[in-house]
Design a protein that fits this description.
The chain is built from 2 helices and 2 strands; from the N terminus they run βααβ. Helix 1 runs antiparallel to helix 2. The protein is elongated, with a radius of gyration of 20 Å. The mean pLDDT is about 85. By secondary structure, the chain is mainly alpha-helical. It has one domain. It has a two-stranded antiparallel ribbon with strand order 1-2.
């Protein structure tokens, strides 16, 4: 058994934030393209704002993911100091 006793708070939060940004950008990309087309046609006065707002969402999502992952790591580290952490059983794969 391997025991996870502690997470590196900043490193874990940084990795999760980048993953959140990439995933949200991939998910939002069609909406960004469609939104910019529809906004230019129906609401030309908001054309610049709509695309910029949608492009900011992955950054906001990454920032929020960073904050909540850091909080989660701190809480886990606190609880793991009392309970010993999560145990994981691993084995080497045969080829």
């Amino acid at each position: 058994m391997i025991r996870v006793k502690k997470f590196g708070v900043l490193q874990t939060a940084k990795v999760v934030a980048i993953i959140y940004m990439i995933v949200s950008l991939v998910v939002l990309l069609p909406f960004i393209m469609l939104g910019s087309l529809l906004t230019e046609e129906f609401f030309p006065e908001f054309a610049d704002f709509g695309g910029a707002a949608l492009l900011m969402l992955p950054l906001v999502y990454g920032f929020i993911g960073f904050i909540f992952t850091a909080i989660g790591c701190v809480v886990y580290n606190l609880i793991a100091s009392f309970t010993g952490g999560i145990e994981i059983e691993m084995e080497t794969a045969e080829r």
